[in-house]
Design a protein that fits this description.
With 185 residues, the chain is α+β, with helices and mostly antiparallel strands. Helix content is 44%, strand content 19%. A hairpin with a 2-residue loop joins β3 (40-43) and β4 (46-50).
């Protein structure tokens, strides 16, 4: 029972040591005498926390340098011996603040993405060769996949033939439309 009493006392005193290892500071704007919310507070080049609605943040008791930064205010770097319970944060009137940029997608970008997506399958296979042999037994019995492979092979041959003969119907219709347009002028 004596051991249980000692363990209970130690367990009750443990949170007190944790509380003493930290303290909170308040960061405020001296011009309006109001706390500043959302200030980034860093300790020894590491981000520790941001201030709450009341401008308060917990910091450890032992550190070397305190870094305080917020957009629109002058950034501060304070050594530990000068850190007090409340720290004024001065506005930077020469600071632009946050800049938001809006843009529209251009047609050239859309065309380039379309070309990248429709990259030739053989070219992809040459760039990323398969190092091993892949075999799937279910592929042998899949009728739809066999039909699709046969259809793809047939279409590849047709496109190859069209490319060799320069008989592409789309290109021919485009050329016909251009000729008709020139004749009308």
């Amino acid at each position: 029972m004596n051991k249980r009493l000692i363990v209970a006392i130690i367990a009750l005193l443990m949170p007190l040591t944790v509380l003493r290892a930290q303290r909170f500071i308040t960061i405020f704007d001296p011009e309006v005498n109001q706390p500043v919310r959302g200030v980034s507070v860093g300790i020894d080049y590491n981000k520790a926390d941001t201030t709450n609605v009341y401008g308060q943040v917990f910091i450890p008791a032992k550190f070397d340098t305190l870094f305080i930064k917020k957009s629109g205010y002058v950034a501060l770097r304070i050594p530990r011996k000068y850190v007090e319970d409340s720290i004024p944060l001065i506005r930077d009137y020469h600071h632009i603040g946050e800049v938001v940029v809006y843009a529209e997608r251009s047609k050239e970008l859309d065309q380039a993405v379309h070309r990248w997506v429709k990259e030739d399958k053989t070219e992809v296979e040459l760039r990323h060769p398969i190092t091993g042999i892949s075999f799937n037994m279910s592929d042998l019995f899949n009728r739809r996949q066999r039909r699709d492979r046969k259809h793809a092979k047939k279409m590849k041959a047709i496109f190859k033939q069209l490319d060799e003969q320069d008989n592409d119907p789309i290109v021919q219709s485009y050329r016909r439309a251009l000729r008709n347009k020139q004749i009308k002028r």
